[in-house]
Design goal:
This is Sortilin N-terminal domain-containing protein. The chain is built from one helix and 30 strands. The chain is mostly beta strands. The chain has one domain: 7 Propeller (Methylamine Dehydrogenase, Chain H). A five-stranded antiparallel β-sheet has the order 2-16-15-14-13, with no helix packed on it. A five-stranded antiparallel β-sheet has the order 3-8-7-6-5, with no helix packed on it. The protein has a four-stranded antiparallel β-sheet with strand order 9-10-11-12, with no helix packed on it. A hairpin with a 2-residue loop joins strand 6 and strand 7. The N terminus is likely disordered.
């Protein structure tokens, strides 16, 4: 089944305005870890001012206490009321996903660091100081990448046929060593979108589409629509529930959904203009009351009490000197 892919958040805003085969990915890694290290001393230092033009993902890595933003300037971290940035490895981390040991990501490397472009799928367990190839290093870039927080499960959408990888939704149960393609039975949307993986049960995923959220308990082999057919721009897991943002009747909403019972709760959050939808949502698995979201215009909000109160951490991607 061929589906058009939503690989650009710009396209979302424009829309608002108007058999299973095993694939081995082992030889997609460079033999013997033959990849470059950063040539500049890597530190994470407090920053008093910055301007982000694009946020590519947000999350709470388990090896740190901060909220990570993957941006056009590399990693930007909000921790204990202060902002931090890295002195090197300012890669374009597309498909950024926080996990318990750090993060995985795709994207493009900062020039001069010696990493191959594109990055394929990489992982870092030391807050971005170095990266290890997971799969398809130097071969592909994956905008839609997802991972289980505490397990070996990785999902991605592959736009074009690639050696050892099928077109469409692919998943690995062993940290990228072998890949299978999701059958997507029951999937009726005209687009593939953002994937979220249950933090502890890697067989369970949810996908945000222009026609609602599709939910699967078998790695995407069978998919079930669990919302009305409205546009969903971001989704993540909050325990066994789903936290998602939708656009309904020209309004941006934030909701919590039990995908089994269908029960929904609408959460209060700061008003957002119609042309500034929520692009990424994050929940801290170590503290489920700590949640955050970013928007198309690079606003970032965080709540530490489950959405009762929100703090505006960033407006228009800009942090100015105080």
């Amino acid at each position: 089944m061929k589906k058009s892919l939503l690989f650009s958040l710009i396209s979302i805003v424009l829309l608002i305005a108007a058999g299973c085969t095993n694939k081995s990915g082992q030889d997609s890694k460079p033999a013997g870890g033959n990849y470059a290290k950063a040539k500049v001393n890597y530190e994470i230092k407090e920053t008093k001012a910055f301007k982000l033009n694009r946020i590519y993902g947000i999350g709470y890595p388990g090896n740190d206490t901060g909220l990570y933003l993957a941006s056009n300037q590399g990693l930007i971290i909000y921790r204990a009321g202060k902002w931090f940035e890295s002195t090197a490895n300012r890669h374009q981390y597309i498909g950024f996903q926080a996990v318990n040991t750090g993060f995985i990501a795709s994207g493009h490397p900062q020039k001069g660091t010696g990493y191959k472009d594109p990055l394929g799928i990489m992982k870092s367990n030391n807050k971005g100081k170095s990266m290890e190839p997971v799969a398809f290093y130097g071969k592909a870039n994956f905008h839609f990448l997802a991972a289980g927080y505490a397990g070996p499960d990785i999902y991605m959408i592959n736009e074009k046929p690639l050696e050892q990888l099928s077109q469409g939704v692919n998943y690995s149960k062993d940290n990228g060593q072998n890949w299978q393609v999701s059958k997507l039975k029951g999937f009726q949307a005209d687009s593939l979108g953002m994937i979220a993986v249950h933090p502890e049960k890697g067989d369970i995923i949810a996908m945000a589409t222009r026609s609602g959220i599709y939910y699967s308990t078998d790695n995407g082999d069978t998919m079930k629509l669990v919302t009305d057919p409205f546009m969903v721009t971001a989704v993540t897991f909050l325990g066994d529930s789903l936290l998602f943002s939708s656009v309904e009747e020209n309004k941006i909403l934030l909701k919590r959904l039990d995908p089994v019972t269908g029960n929904q709760t609408t959460l209060s959050f700061p008003f957002l203009d119609y042309d500034n939808p929520i692009t990424y949502l994050a929940v801290n698995p170590k503290n489920k009351k700590q949640i955050a979201f970013s928007t198309y215009k690079n606003d970032v909000y965080e709540s530490v009490d489950g959405g009762e109160k929100w703090i505006n951490l960033l407006s228009n991607g800009k942090k100015e000197l105080e």
